[in-house]
Predict the 3D structure of the following.
Amino acid sequence: MDIKAGQSEAFVAGYVRKPDPALRAALIYGNDEGMVAERGRTLAQAVCPDLGDAFRVVELSGAQLKDDPARLGDEFQSLSLIGGRRVVRVRPAGDETVDAVQTVLDATAGDALIVLEAGNLPPSSRLRQLVAAAPAGAAIA
């Protein structure tokens, strides 16, 4: 789904109140790096309040996924040793992550929330188009 800038605050607030386990990938993008980071952090904390929890939270960069696209799928399918849904934060994310994100969206197993934080992405961005078109994805301006 494609969430416009005017709807993004309401979408994030709704997700915080009731996290949807069907959401696999949330792409937050825009010119304001601080707002992108804040919304990404808020979504991640809806799933795991302690973002310092090494068993439930993993941070990757887009460059890491470009070199090893399977890593995102591995992290998505990994289970937490202490229980609870996991969060995988990817920042910065860009079109170099498309193959990795496609793998997660096509996966039959796994329940982590992938939070992708990006700068301004044009409508022609492959990543933006992929996440917005996916039933289990949300592209948030």
The helical segments are 5-17, 33-47, 62-67, 70-77, 98-106, 126-133. The first strand starts at residue 2 and ends at 3. The mean pLDDT is 89. The radius of gyration is 13 Å.
